[in-house]
Design a protein that fits this description.
The chain has two domains: about 100 residues, no CATH class; about 140 residues, 3-Layer(aba) Sandwich (Protein Transport Mog1p, Chain A). Strand 5 and strand 6 form a beta hairpin. It is globular and about 70 Å long. The chain is α+β, with helices and mostly antiparallel strands. Helix content is about 45%, strand content about 20%.
């Protein structure tokens, strides 16, 4: 069970709109500085939306509502202690974690597109979509040293009209992963390389969602996820160029 001062508990309260303005601003500051907390916020928000979709609210029986209102009337004057409030938030976090398992299932692969897309959108909203800005693979690749467990595959595709723009570290399912950013005309492509040791190689799988296109494949123990708002054909071409480029 999470401790009452666990920052992830505040994220639950923040997503549910239960914080006062001062505490909400403090949480937003911590989210901007901590990619792991931001990823947790996105996961909780996705869970909340899915629960609302899968389990729409139903009107409570009249007798139950009357009983609850009568109890609430007797206790309205009582102010909860900080200990009680912390326990309530902790309980909500435990219930939320259980609901995650029930509503979303245990499959990490099923949640991967949402996590990758959330990181892409968050990057598009930032002042720039990368932490290291360079079109030189010999600058971008070494930048990841010490930031992720293994060096990413970085390919120069400028001659194919997909120039490298930079790179960043995303947290996907609580796993730090390298994300390369490529340009195509006026659009950006995020290519996230998630460690997948022991996973067999698999060819590209295409999907769409929320106005974005995805191409996913696995090679050499790494799961690659390309996401962008460019056309599906253009993203397929990018993935094909990246996959078949010779090692440098």
């Amino acid at each position: 069970m999470a401790a009452p001062d666990d920052p992830t508990l505040l994220i639950h309260a923040y997503v549910d709109g239960e914080l006062d303005p001062a505490n909400a601003l403090e949480v937003e500051r911590r989210l901007a500085a901590d990619p792991a907390l931001a990823a947790e916020r996105d996961r909780i928000a996705a869970l909340r939306a899915k629960l609302q979709h899968e389990f729409p609210r139903e009107a409570a029986p009249t007798a139950l509502r009357a009983r609850v209102e009568s109890i609430g009337g007797r206790r309205r004057a009582e102010r909860p202690s900080w200990r009680a409030l912390a326990a309530a938030v902790a309980l909500a976090a435990v219930v939320g974690s259980g609901a995650t398992y029930v509503a979303l299932g245990p499959s990490r692969d099923e949640r991967m597109p949402d996590a990758v897309l959330a990181s892409h959108i968050r990057a598009m909203m930032a002042p720039q979509a990368f932490d290291v800005a360079s079109s030189d693979r010999h600058t971008v690749k070494p930048w990841f040293n010490g930031r992720i467990p293994q060096a990413p595959r970085v390919i120069d595709l400028a001659r194919d009209d997909f120039p490298l723009a930079g790179g960043r570290v995303d947290v996907i399912g609580r796993t730090p992963a390298a994300t390369l950013v490529y340009r195509h005309r006026k659009h950006l492509i995020s290519l996230t390389e998630v460690p997948a040791p022991g996973r067999p190689d698999a060819g590209p799988v295409r999907r769409t969602g929320d106005g974005y296109n995805f191409v996913h494949w696995t090679e050499g123990g790494v799961a690659y996820w390309a996401v962008s708002d460019i056309g599906a054909g253009d993203l397929d071409e990018f993935a094909q160029k990246f996959r078949t480029a010779p090692a440098e």
